[in-house]
Amino acid sequence: MAYRNGSSILADYAYLRTLPALTVALLFVFSAYLYGAISPVTLEWGIDYTITTQGALIGSLVIYALAFASSETKDLEKYEKPEIALISSGPGIMLLYQYIPYVQDQFAAYDPTLYIIAFIFSMVSWGVMVR
To answer: Domain tally for the chain?
Structure first.
């Protein structure tokens, strides 16, 4: 693709960087629903689908994959070890919360503190990933 001026290159670059911006909004909704911050979300436009916790988990994991694929550093070797720990903490906590009853019991025992901490970790892990 030939460019006549630098503005076209910048416009294409800005377009590619909108994917992480769009995904964070969905991740916010899915994480907030998964951790009980918002009530069920229903898509009414002919589908009549109410998001379940399983759907929110799958959507969140897809968003993490899209964000990682669209980040400038697509290789885990380019991250420091603390960054890798933060990146894996978001999806890791989501998976543990969804499938391990002991973790669910701990969340229930420390309501709402652990829910808030898990939500923050999901947002921070996304932020570190797309840096």
So the answer is: 1
Please check whether residue 1 lies inside any domain of the structure. Answer: no
Alpha-carbon span 45 to 95, nearest angstrom: 30
Q: Which residue has the tokens 């076209």?
A: 8
pTM of the full structure: 0.79
Is 55 domain-assigned?
yes
The residue type found at 118 is A
Q: Mean of the pLDDT values across residues 14-33? A: 79
Instruction: Tell me which amino acid residue 78 is.
Output: K
- Find out whether 90 and 54 touch, Cβ atoms under 8 Å: no
- pLDDT-derived band at 125 (thresholds 50, 70, 90) equals very high
Rounded Cα gap, residues 68 and 89, in angstroms: 14
- Where does residue 56 fall: left (phi above 0), alpha (psi -120 to 50 degrees), or beta otherwise? alpha
Domain that holds residue 27: 6-129
Distance separating alpha carbons of residues 51 and 74, to the nearest angstrom: 30
